[in-house]
From TrEMBL, chain A:
The keyword Glycoprotein applies. Na(+) binds at G38, A40, V41, N45, S269, N301, L418, S422. This is Transporter. The chain crosses the membrane at residues 32-49, 55-79, 100-132, 184-207, 219-246, 266-283, 295-316, 406-427, 448-473, 479-502, 523-543, 572-594. The keyword Repeat does not apply. InterPro entries: Na/ntran_symport, Neutral_aa_SLC6, SNS_sf. It comes from Alosa alosa (allis shad). One of its GO terms (molecular function) is symporter activity. Keywords: Glycoprotein, Membrane, Metal-binding, Sodium, Symport, Transmembrane, Transmembrane helix, Transport. It comes from the Eukaryota. Its main location: membrane. Residues 9-24 have a biased composition (Basic and acidic residues). Belongs to the sodium:neurotransmitter symporter (SNF) (TC 2.A.22) family. One of its GO terms (cellular component) is plasma membrane.
From TrEMBL, chain B:
It is found in: Cell membrane. GO terms for biological process: positive regulation of amino acid transport. It is a single-pass type I membrane protein. This is Collectrin-like domain-containing protein. Its main location: membrane. Keywords: Cell membrane, Glycoprotein, Membrane, Phosphoprotein, Signal, Transmembrane, Transmembrane helix. Residues 199-233 are annotated as: Disordered. It comes from Alosa alosa (allis shad). GO terms for cellular component: extracellular exosome; plasma membrane.
């Protein structure tokens, strides 16, 4: 059936050629490694890991993080790269080969990858929008726009900050409620179209073009991070930020939430269970050292997270110091004007002394001034992750840096290339299985098929261009981008342990790389990793069940505006959330039951046996080799 | 109780200072007690921040600077009456009544009419200042926020119009580049395909690679030609 016929066509030959063509190959190992690293290293390394480091007490967080990397991340990575390289198919073909009952795992991978494609590119669209806007002087998010009759600034902007206003109003034009859809925003659609066009251009000829594109997209972020590092360390307040980040709070190690977050972070950061890594390694030569690759990719990913957190936190420290200084300045101005003290007699250094003196001599006036309490620690505590970090916190910091436009442009190009290289993996996890299964009609060249998939994803992504788009993106991110992956990874491990056999798997790897995986890998695959994943999965479910699903809504009419209004999800929205979390993993039981039913109902026993055996043995080379020899 | 004491002390200080200075008759009329000027409903409070604006090059504030201020305000009123009402009213520095200057360098002032014995209303003074704000600022090398007229609503500058076009220009450049690259890739893909098709038609009988042993049959993807470590049967 479909899984037997593995003729892979590359884009250069038209269909209808009678001879099956060879599978595309990487030009060299560097391309392959850069692609895998680019896929694993994404925007999450920049805007999720530093945040986790901060809230879990800096240096202390590294301990569960590294433990999770070694015992959970690396074994899974090694597993995926090995089976992809061995079976030389996309995710659906690979799992069908291992066992027909496990075919659903591949289908789930593909469905989940498709859903991630749809929403991930919206992030890139937003990054592009900010990139386009960064070429102005002054930056559009640095000041409030003036209202219609030129008497003052727009109220929504004055109550919150210009940066918040630019993000929520001028970029998203967000509706106050998820049920209010608002209209489609043409500027977001334009940016989304551009993002998909760029992705499509890189995918036109499959790994031939991807392999060239990753030379830029995978390496450029490191260059920018280094530039930012050098610049950030020279900013005032940088050391405060770094100290704050890295000062370990050892007592937090007792908090189980910390271990849970470390495990989930490693898991999602490495992008396993997408099917993309399987697809990439399927283009490798058979005797490639996948163990080394797995260790390299895993370690580079974690090292990048650490490396990225240094400039991020230096800049956040700078921002906290700037905010603290502005707070002091406004207080000083208020005091100077109220008490008619000489201009600039009160400085940052003698502010405290002046304040105590004035409080003693005239406490009423001081009280009437309603001075805000300026505490550097409070400003440092204001952390954010995700889009909040990139589009609100960082953009605010950039305003205070001299030469803001340059830094903004560099930052957004870096985010774009980080996201683009991750999109390669996401889309590859969708395309390769479909191409392997020959779902493509013979007359359609690969370019057209890729374009079709991109257009479908683009049209579905229009949901996020509406007024409520950001709320829906959060839903997709939380529900699609979490539980399904855990389930798929668990089944991958179970598939190898129970259906394929760990011993056999190790033998295959020895055949490929020349060295047998040592005891550490075997123990991890057989007990530690599944156990860890199971614990993480159960803990995740328990935590989700306990918290009522709510979302922060940006509502200018809210009484406590500019605080976001915490609203519960309406019933129908929550139903969609559950659907998003469960439907992608439904193929796993469905396909297994379907195959089981097929086996039971088919009367021809020998045919069944050979069919079963053939599909299983296909992965085991010497037997098939014998078949081939016999046919010759 | 404390407030009363403070007030008495302050008043005593001002009184003694006014007597000690021993100014001429005309100046004595002009510089009235601070609190008297401040009470006038038409008084404006002025606040200067010299050190913030000029740093080390800040000049010291003295009587002459105050005189310059009065002269500048007189000029402002003259210009206003000329522009708005078409009248030439000869305001002089005596018509600008200022109060004492605090260490902050702030003081109150109001404007009297040279022709009548009345005070010019605050609204008119405000309009006059708005008209000649730039000139007043430049006389003191200051700007709108370092030479403050407290309570004067600032006219905000209209937003710069070309903001929309800039991002569209950048977008246009990026899209153009992407489309060019795309067209190049597609066209070169077609050309390569045509070349290879011709080449394939030429050497069809060669059997392109060892992989195509079973033309039309099932390719064993697990089987690699170049692998010589497998034991051959």
């Amino acid at each position: 059936m479909g899984e037997q016929c593995v003729a892979e066509h590359n884009g250069d030959k038209p269909e209808g050629a009678s001879s099956p063509e060879e599978r595309p190959k990487w030009d060299n190992k560097t391309q392959y490694l850069l692609t895998c690293i680019g896929f694993a290293v994404g925007v999450g390394n920049v805007w999720r890991f530093p945040y986790l480091c901060q809230i879990y007490g800096g240096g202390a967080f590294l301990i569960p993080y590294l433990i999770a990397l070694v015992f959970e991340g690396l074994p899974l990575l090694y597993l995926e790269l090995a089976i992809g390289q061995r079976l030389r198919l996309g995710s659906i073909g690979v799992w069908n080969s291992i066992s027909p009952y496990l075919g659903g795992v591949g289908v789930s991978s593909m469905v989940v990858s498709f859903l991630v494609c749809v929403f991930y590119n919206t992030l890139l669209a937003w990054v592009l929008w900010y990139f386009f806007q960064s070429f102005q002087n002054p930056l559009p998010w640095s000041q409030c726009p003036v209202n219609e009759n030129l008497t003052g600034y727009i109220e929504e902007c004055v109550k919150s900050t210009p940066v918040n206003y630019f993000w929520y109003r001028e970029t998203l034009n967000i509706s106050p409620d998820i049920e209010i859809n608002g209209s489609l925003h043409w500027w977001i659609i334009v940016c989304l179209g551009t993002a998909w066009l760029v992705v499509y251009i890189c995918f036109i000829r499959g790994i031939e073009t991807i392999g060239k594109a990753v030379y830029v997209t995978a390496t450029f972020p490191y260059l920018v991070l280094t530039i930012f590092l050098i610049r950030a360390l020279t900013l005032p307040g940088a050391t405060d930020g770094l100290l704050y980040l890295f000062t370990p709070k050892w007592e937090l190690l007792q908090n189980p939430q910390m271990w849970l977050d470390a495990s989930t972070q490693i898991f999602f950061s490495l992008s396993v269970a997408f099917g993309g890594l399987i697809a990439f390694s399927s283009y490798n030569p058979l005797h490639n050292d996948c163990q080394q690759d797995a260790v390299v990719v895993g370690c580079v990913n974690s090292a990048t997270s650490l490396y990225a957190s240094i400039p991020i936190f230096a800049i956040l420290g700078f921002k906290a110091t700037s905010n603290y200084n502005s707070c002091l300045d406004s207080n000083i101005l208020a005091l100077t004007n109220a008490f008619e003290i000489g201009d600039q007699n009160i400085t940052h250094t003698n502010y405290e002394d002046w304040l105590t003196y004035l409080n003693k001599t005239d406490p009423d006036t001081v009280f009437k001034l309603d001075l805000t309490e300026c505490d550097l620690q409070d400003f440092l505590d204001q952390s954010a992750s995700g889009t909040g970090l990139a589009f609100i916190v960082f953009t605010e910091a950039v305003i205070s840096m001299p030469g803001s436009q340059v830094w903004a442009v560099l930052f957004f190009i870096m985010l774009f290339s980080l996201g683009l290289s991750s999109m390669f993996g996401n889309l590859e996890g969708v395309l390769t299985p479909l191409l392997d299964l020959h779902m493509v009609p013979k007359w359609m060249p690969r370019e057209v098929f890729t374009a079709l998939i991109c257009i479908v994803c683009f049209l579905m992504g229009l949901i996020f261009a509406m007024g409520s788009g950001n709320y829906w993106l959060e839903i997709f991110n939380t529900y699609v981008g979490s539980v399904p992956f855990l389930i798929i990874a668990l089944f991958e491990l179970f598939g190898i342990i129970f259906f394929y056999g760990t011993e056999r798997f190790c033998k295959e790897i020895e055949f490929m790389t020349g060295k047998r995986p040592n005891l550490f890998w075997k123990v991890c695959w057989m007990c530690i990793s599944p156990l860890l994943l199971l614990v993480v999965f159960l803990a995740y479910i328990i935590v989700q069940v306990q918290t009522t699903p709510t979302y922060p809504a940006w509502n200018p009419d809210y009484e406590h505006f500019p605080k976001t209004e915490i609203q519960p999800y309406p019933g129908w929205v929550f139903a969609i959330c559950i659907l998003l979390a469960t439907v992608p993993v439904l193929p796993i039981p469905f396909v297994a039951l379907y195959r089981l039913a097929q086996n039971i109902t088919t009367t021809k026993q020998p045919a069944n046996d050979t069919a079963l055996k053939a599909s299983v043995n296909k992965a085991y080379v010497p037997d098939v080799d014998m078949d081939l020899q016999r046919k010759l | 109780m404390w407030m009363k004491l403070l007030l008495i002390v302050a008043l005593a200080g001002i009184y003694t200072q006014a007597k000690e200075d021993g100014r001429g008759q005309i100046s004595g009329e002009v510089e009235e007690a601070r609190w008297r000027v401040a009470e006038s409903p038409d008084a404006f409070k002025v606040r200067l921040s010299l050190k913030s604006a000029l740093g080390d090059e800040a000049y010291t504030w003295n009587e002459n600077e105050l005189y310059l201020f009065r002269a500048a305000m007189a000029y402002t009123m003259r210009q206003y009456y000329m522009a708005e009402k078409g009248q030439q009213v000869n305001f002089t520095s005596e018509n600008i009544v200022t109060s004492e200057v605090t260490p902050r360098i702030s003081f109150f002032f109001y404007v009297t009419n040279p022709d009548a014995a009345a005070t010019i209303t605050k609204a008119e003074v405000e309009a006059a200042i708005r008209l000649s704000r730039g000139r007043i600022n430049s006389a003191f090398l200051l700007s709108d926020d370092t030479l403050e007229f407290v309570g004067l609503l600032a006219t905000l500058s209209p937003p710069a119009e070309p903001t929309v076009e800039v991002w569209l220009i950048v977008f246009g450049v990026v899209i153009g580049f992407v489309v060019l690259v795309g067209v190049f890739l597609i066209v070169s893909g077609f050309r390569n395909r045509r070349k290879r098709k011709l080449k394939m038609d030429d050497d069809d009988d060669e059997g392109k690679a060892g992989e195509e042993i079973e033309s039309g049959g099932v390719t064993n993807s697990g089987f690699e030609e170049e692998d010589d470590r497998r034991t051959q049967l």
